[in-house]
Please model this.
Amino acid sequence: MSSYFGKNLKVSVFGQSHGAGIGMVMDGFPAGFKIDMDALNAFMQRRAPGQNRMTTARKEKDLPKFLSGLVEDTTCGAPMAAVIENTDMRKKDYAAHKLLPRPGHADYTAQIRYGGYQDVSGGGHFSGRLTAPLCIAGGICLQMLESRGIKIMARIRAVHGVEDVKWDMVDPKPMQSVAGKPFPVIDDNAGEKMQAEILDAARKGDSVGGVVEVAAFGVPAGLGDPMFMGVENRVSQALFGIPAVKGVEFGAGFAAAGMYGSENNDAFYEEGPCKTNASGGILGGITSGMPVVARVAIKPTPSIALEQDTIDFETGKAEKVQVNGRHDPCIVPRAVPVVEAVFAMAIMDMLLDAPAF
Amino acid sequence: MSSYFGKNLKVSVFGQSHGAGIGMVMDGFPAGFKIDMDALNAFMQRRAPGQNRMTTARKEKDLPKFLSGLVEDTTCGAPMAAVIENTDMRKKDYAAHKLLPRPGHADYTAQIRYGGYQDVSGGGHFSGRLTAPLCIAGGICLQMLESRGIKIMARIRAVHGVEDVKWDMVDPKPMQSVAGKPFPVIDDNAGEKMQAEILDAARKGDSVGGVVEVAAFGVPAGLGDPMFMGVENRVSQALFGIPAVKGVEFGAGFAAAGMYGSENNDAFYEEGPCKTNASGGILGGITSGMPVVARVAIKPTPSIALEQDTIDFETGKAEKVQVNGRHDPCIVPRAVPVVEAVFAMAIMDMLLDAPAF
Amino acid sequence: MSSYFGKNLKVSVFGQSHGAGIGMVMDGFPAGFKIDMDALNAFMQRRAPGQNRMTTARKEKDLPKFLSGLVEDTTCGAPMAAVIENTDMRKKDYAAHKLLPRPGHADYTAQIRYGGYQDVSGGGHFSGRLTAPLCIAGGICLQMLESRGIKIMARIRAVHGVEDVKWDMVDPKPMQSVAGKPFPVIDDNAGEKMQAEILDAARKGDSVGGVVEVAAFGVPAGLGDPMFMGVENRVSQALFGIPAVKGVEFGAGFAAAGMYGSENNDAFYEEGPCKTNASGGILGGITSGMPVVARVAIKPTPSIALEQDTIDFETGKAEKVQVNGRHDPCIVPRAVPVVEAVFAMAIMDMLLDAPAF
Amino acid sequence: MSSYFGKNLKVSVFGQSHGAGIGMVMDGFPAGFKIDMDALNAFMQRRAPGQNRMTTARKEKDLPKFLSGLVEDTTCGAPMAAVIENTDMRKKDYAAHKLLPRPGHADYTAQIRYGGYQDVSGGGHFSGRLTAPLCIAGGICLQMLESRGIKIMARIRAVHGVEDVKWDMVDPKPMQSVAGKPFPVIDDNAGEKMQAEILDAARKGDSVGGVVEVAAFGVPAGLGDPMFMGVENRVSQALFGIPAVKGVEFGAGFAAAGMYGSENNDAFYEEGPCKTNASGGILGGITSGMPVVARVAIKPTPSIALEQDTIDFETGKAEKVQVNGRHDPCIVPRAVPVVEAVFAMAIMDMLLDAPAF
Model:
C-alpha cells in the first residue's frame, strides 16, 4: 500500500510511466466547486516536459480526462477520477534496467520489494510521470484554496548551491513576483546562474539538484494538531511523496539549529501575530496565521549519461550502466508546481478537519 | 485528533505537563516479546531531566507503570498501556502564560485551536514532558528491533553551529562509539565546544538549537512503499511529532541539493548494495539494505529568561514576558534518545507490513 | 492492532480482565465541554455488575480516574485518558482455560493468534470487563450529543425469543419510557417474561441471548457518506466491537428482506421527511433527519456451568470443561448502556466530519 | 470521504451511474499474481444486467479496462486501476428526480449532503452500477484467495420471505452445489418459488428484497483482532458498502439471540476445531478455522412503478412520483456475486495483516 494520502481528502494515485494511463482519484472534496479547466490545464503545463532546453524532449499533453466527480465541471461530491492516457511510449529505451539497476533509482529496491514483478519500463510507478496526477489533484485544491483566500506559491530557492535571495517569510510580494516566470526565482540574476549550472551539468552528461521553497498565505490560525497530526507531520508526509525529495523543513528549518532562542522566537505584536516568521507559521503543530513556509531538498536527477557501476541482477556480477533516454538534467524547475500541488493537498486536508465543531 | 501514530503499530500518547499522569497506549505489538524493564528504565533515564548542569533542575523518576499488555513483562498481544504519574508539579510557575503567550511556544496557537480551554500549565499537552511516553513506546520497539538484528543509534550532530565530525553513513563503528557517552558525539572535542555554547547561552538567559543524526543498522531491504507510504513519509511524520523539530532529512538530505548526480548516486557493487549511502538507505521510498539515516533539526528551547515582546490575550495590548521556571538551555542532548525512540516506532510499524505476503 | 476506533474521534481501549487496570484514551474530542462526572458515574453504574440477581455477584466500582484531557472536568483539547483500577481479582478461577479452551469464548482463537502468550485470566483483553472503558468514552459522547440536541436511547428488544412490543421507529415516547427502568423494556409484562427466561436459564446452569434496539433522536440530516464510510458502515464497525454481538441491522433490517418495495420505501411529506422509518434514518449511507435506529443481536453468555466438550491444547486430546466463576446468565441488560455508548461514539465521530466545509 | 475501503488493501471506487466511466483503484495487492481475465470477465457477467426476465433490460458489457498495476495480466505491485466506460446512457429517464426525491433512494439525503450539486442522473454515485467496480476489485481478490486455498461462495438464502433450505455452516458441499446456477439456491424448488415472487412483484409494479448468505472456506485460524478490528467489524464495514444492505449477521446471527448458551457454543473436538459453527468461524473477532459465514439483508429495490408520495424540493409541496426507467424488481440475484466480491476484499485485507510477524 502506498499511493494514497489524506485523512479527509483522500488522494489515490495510479499508473506506471509507460502503462496505458496514469491518473488519480480524489475523494472527500466538497461539492459545488466549479473547476476552471483552462486554469487547471495551464497549471499542468507548468509541470509538463518539453518546454525548454533544460527539460526532456518528450512532448506530452498531459491533459486529464475526468471520468467522474463532476457535473459540467462542478464538483458533485462523488470521488473525482481523472486519467491521462499515455501516448508517447518508447519501451525499448528502458528494457535493460531490470537486470542492471540504475544507481539512485528505485530499480534495485523495487526488484526486492516486488520480487521482480515490477513494471520496469521508465521506472514504472516510481517514475516522475506520476507527479502529473499529483498536479491534477493539487491543482484543483489550489483553485479551491484560492477561492477561500489562501494562496500557495513556490519558487526555486537554489540549484546546485546557487542560491536565490533570502526571503523574510512574511512579505508576500517577493514570492508573488515569481508568478508566471519561466524560471521562477526572485532574483533573475541568480536564476541565470542556476540555469548555467544546469546546462553545464547537461553538457557533462551529469545532473544537479536544488531546493524549492513554498509558502501558503492566508491560512487561518488554528489548523492542525499537536504531535503526530500537526501541520509539519501531514505536510511532510505529503511532500516526501514527490520523487527525489530528500529533506523537508519549515520556517527557519535547519538554520534554527544554529540560532539562539532569542533569534528564533517570533515575538507577538498587537498588529498581527508576529513581525518575524522563524516558526514558518506553525507552533505546536498548529497554524499561527503567519505564512506557512516549507522548503524541500530535491536530489540531482539520478538518470545521467555518465557511466556508472552497477550489478547484473541475474548473475550478481559487476557491470557498467549508462542511462540513455530523455531526462532532465535538473528536475527542480518542473518540481515547483508539483510542490505547490502537494502542499495544497495537505493544507486542504487540514481545512477539512472540523476543529471548531 | 492528534496524538497517535502508526498503521500497524498504533501508538497513542496522552497527558499534560502538570496533569495527574502522562502515558501511552501501544496497540499492535506482537505477542511473546519479553521486555527488559531495567534496560527500558535505563533508556528512559537518558531522556530524564536533572542529569547535569545543562538540563533543568527538575527531578523526575519518569518510570512507567504498566497497566496492561504484559504478562510477567512479556507482551500478551493486548494493547500495552503505561502511565507515568506526575509527582513534581509547580503550577504557579506557569499561571501567567494563558494571558501572555510565550514566543516560540504553542500558547498562542493552542489558545486559538482550543478556544481558551487548553491546559496552560507547563505547556499542557505541548510540553516536552510528553516525550517521556514516546520513550516508553519507542524504547520497547528498540528492544524488539535489536532482537531482530536491527540497531538504532543517534548522536548529537551539531549544537548552535558547532558540528561533530561527518560520518560516511556506511560504517557503524563511529556511531557505535557514542553509546554510553553522557554527551553523545563522535568527536569529544567538538562535544566540549558544544557544551561551552550551551553553558554560554544559559549564562545569557538564552538557549540554542542543534541537529540530531540517527541511523538504523540491519534494516532489511524491501521495507516501505512508493509515494505516500514510503520510509521517508512515515518516518518524517513520526519525527515531526517530537516538539521543536523543524526539519527532517534523509541521507545526503539538503546537501544533495548542491551535488551532481554522479556524486549523489550510490553505485551498486557485488559485495553488498553500495559503498556509499547518499540515499540514506532509501530509494523510491523503499529500504535498500544500507543503513537508514536521518537528521532532525531541533530549534532552540523557546523558554528563555530574556525579556520578550508579546501581547495580553484579554486586552490585545503589547506586553513583555519573561519565562521563569526550570528550562533546558538546549534540549538537543535529551532529544537524542527521543529521536531513537520515535525512529524505532516508525521502523517497527513498517516491519509489521506484510510485503512478502 | 485492534482496539481503537474512529476517524475524527479516536478511541483506544486497553486492559485485561484481571490486569492492573483497564481504560481508554479518547483523542479528538472538542475542547470546552464540561463533563458531568456524577452523570457519567451513574451511567457507568448501569453497566456495572452486581446490581440484581440476574448479574454476576462481582462488586466493582468501575469508576474512572482521569489522568489527562480535563481541566476541572472540562475538556481541554488534549487526549482524555481514564483508568479503572482492578480491585477484585480472583485469578485462580480461570487458571485452567489456557489448556482447556471454553466453547464460545476467544480462548481458542487467542491461543492461535497470540501463540500462547495471551493473558488467559478472565478472558484477558477479550473480557466483557473491557466494555467499561467503552462506557467512559461513550458516556462522555452521550453528554456532548445531548448538549447538541441529540438523544440516544436503547432498550431490550428481546431475550431468548421473548419480544418486547414493536416500535414504529418514529415516535420517541415509547423509547423515552424505558429511561431509568432497572429492566429497560417498553412493555413491563414482556420484561417479566424475559426475566423469567433468564432466571430459568441460570437455574439450568445455562445462559440466554437477546436483542438490543437503539435509536438516536435529533441527528441532523446530511451526516455520513456513500459506500464505505456511510452511517451503517461506521456504526456497525463500532457495534461489532462489543463482545458477543453477532448481528447488526438498521431500520427494518432483516425484516426488509421480506417486504415489498412499496412497504419498505418511506414516502416523503411536507411536514418532515417521512411518516415511516423503514430506512432507520439512513438513505445511501447518509442521515435523513429521521431517528437513526439499529438493532444488535447478542449471543448467549458463553460461560455456562453445564459440562461441555473441549480439547486439551497441550495434548490435543478430548476433555470436558465446566465454567465456574461468576457469570451473567444473560448479558443483554448490561449491554444496553454499552450499546448506547458505542452508538454515541460512532455518531459523534460522524458529527466531527466537516461535510458542510 | 467515502468510497474507499481497507487497511492494507485499499480499494477506492469512483463513478456515477451516467458519467463517463466508473472504476476502481486497488492499492496494496501483492505483486506477481497472474489474473485470469476470462474468469474475471465471467465473474463480472454474473453481476451484469440483462441476463433474464428478472433483471433490467439494460445491456452493458461492463468489462473493465486496466490502466495500471499489471504487466501482461500479472500484478506488478503498483496500484491497479480499471475503468468501465459507460456506453448506454439515457439521461432523460431520470431528469425529474432532483426535484422529486424518490422514496427509498438517496435522492433526498444527497440533496442535503451535497447541497444540490450531486449528480442526479441514475442515482449518481449511489447507483447500483457502482457495484461493478466492486466486482473488479473483489473478483481479483477471489482469484488470489482461491490460489491460497480459500474459496468464497454465496447463495440466495431468501426472497420476500421464501427461504432456501438451512445450511449447517460446516459442510461445503451444499454451498458448492449452487456454483454455476443461474438462480443460485441449494433447493431449486425454493428457487422456483422465489422467482415466482419476483415476477409477481414485477407485474404489480412493485419489488421485493431478500437475504444473501456467504461463506469462506479455508480461511486460516488466527486472522483478525479483538474489539474494533475483528473479522465482524471489518467485514461488516465492507458489506454495508453494498447499496441496499440493511443488516449483516455472522454465524447464528440474530437467531443466536433466541438460543441457549449450550446450543450456541460450538464445542471443540480432536478432529478439528468444531462440529458446529454457530460462531460463523469467528470468536473474539478472530477466525477459528471453521468456515466464515455471514448473511446480508437486502431491501426491496426502491425503484418501483407504483405511484408514491413525495415532495417537490423547490416548492416544498407534496407531489406524486412514479419511477420509470429499467429496474430490477429484485436485486438479490445480481447481489450474490457482489457479496462474494466484497467479502473477498475484506478477507484479503485481513490476510495482509502480519499477525505472525
Summary: Chain D has a mean pLDDT of 92. Chain D has eight helices and 18 strands. Chain D touches chain C through 106 residues (CB under 8 Å).
